Amino acid sequence: EAGVAQSPRYKIIEKRQSVAFWCNPISGHATLYWYQQILGQGPKLLIQFQNNGVVDDSQLPKDRFSAERLKGVDSTLKIQPAKLEDSAVYLCASSLEATYQETQYFGPGTRLLVL
Amino acid sequence: AQSVAQPEDQVNVAEGNPLTVKCTYSVSGNPYLFWYVQYPNRGLQFLLKYITGDNLVKGSYGFEAEFNKSQTSFHLKKPSALVSDSALYFCAVRGRGANNLFFGTGTRLTVIP
User: Fold this and answer.
1) Cβ of B53 under 8 Å from any chain A Cβ?
2) A109 and chain B: CB distance < 8 Å anywhere?
3) For FRET with A49, which of A28, A56, B60, B100 sits at 20 to 30 Å CA-CA?
4) Tens digit of pLDDT for each residue in A12-70?
5) Residues with Cβ < 8 Å from B56, sequence gap 6 or more?
6) Residue B112 burial (CB < 10 Å; 0-12/13-18/19+)?
7) Chain B contacts of A41, Cβ < 8 Å?
């Protein structure tokens, strides 16, 4: 079974530029998550989708971050404009359902450096 | 509010010795507890989880964890450490009614040959 796929793996941009990350979850997984992991910290949830609807985006900085999952499969996370403090690893995860005990499976992440 | 504490940033253990990585949590109601491992330049890999039932949970690669409700702990253990176990370990908790996993800050495990 293929895991969660993410691209690109690495991205370097200058502040105020825009950037987009792509995620393809495990086949059949209805729930998709985007996490931000800053160096030295644990991952923090940015947004959660159930199929193509948003379940929780309370931690998403909506003035600069946006995400979509139009067909309920793959998803895109965008930052526009980027700030220095956005330098982090962006992790995508998926789970079969959104129930509390469901295991989340993570992709390899996209490492973003904002200069 | 939910929180997770991993009191040790770094744990060193000799190969072949038992290892323990500590985790304590705070959550309203019954917790769902998870351990993940992160190797360099890779995402988080699921190791094991506690949902209900037996307090001793067995997971991947010979790891196990013991849920202790009175001490609000979920320590990760392995009877005999391997050099290949060297990685960053994250404990996470999800309370009933919470949408997301809440992660600790991670513990770096180094197994010394």
Assistant:
1) no
2) yes
3) B60
4) 999 999 999 999 999 999 999 999 999 989 999 999 999 889 999 999 999 999 999 98
5) B64, B65, B66, B67
6) exposed
7) 105-106
